[in-house]
Amino acid sequence: MLSKFHRSQKGFTLIELMIVVVIIGILAALAIPRFMRATTKSKQSEAKNILKQVYAMERAYRQEKDVYWIPAGAASAATPNAFGQIGIEIMASARYTYTITSTDGGATDFTATGTSAILDDDVKVDTWTINDQGILACTSDDAL
After folding, report:
1. Which residues, in sequence order, are bridge partners of residue 116?
2. Which is nearest to 96 in space by CA: 35, 32, 140, 36?
3. pLDDT tens-digit map of 49-84
4. What is the reported pTM?
């Protein structure tokens, strides 16, 4: 018969469990900010795609009418058909508000802008632009 001192104890000590919790906490502290940046970057693809679509449709409109189309207002989830004249409809889940402006009424140039303040939990605004040359640029990056 075995004495009570020779029995094998099964389970984890409190110290071992605390070490595991600390390791998990450190891994979470490193992973969560990276995950947030990755999700913000994926949300930015909406603006890039819509602005590229605006560029293509503006070029087509200019080929037909000899001027770029400049709308009176902005397009967003609340006003999805504001760019309907050039064949662009903004989806109901859109996070950005889009505007198209020109320095000369659309005769030779345009700049389309997508702006969003709701990509993540901070107050920084995310802004993307594309111009009549097809240059897509981020002027205020919320993913940084």
Report:
1. 126
2. 140
3. 999 999 999 999 999 999 999 999 999 999 999 999
4. 0.80
Determine whether 44 is exposed, middle or buried from the number of CB atoms within 10 Å of its CB (0-12, 13-18, 19+): buried
d(CA 127, CA 132): 17
Q: What is the pLDDT, as a whole number, of residue 55? A: 98
**CA–CA separation, 83 vs 61, rounded Å?**
12
Own/partner long-range contacts of 41-47 (Cβ < 8 Å, ≥24 apart): 41/143, 43/95, 43/116, 43/119, 44/119, 44/126, 44/128, 44/138, 44/142, 44/143, 46/94, 46/95, 46/96, 46/114, 47/96, 47/114, 47/116, 47/126, 47/128
For residue 135, the tally of other CB atoms under 10 A from its CB is 10
The predicted pLDDT at position 5 comes to 57
Separation of alpha carbons 38 and 33, rounded Å:
9
Residue 130 and residue 52 in contact, taking contact as beta carbons nearer than 8 Å:
yes
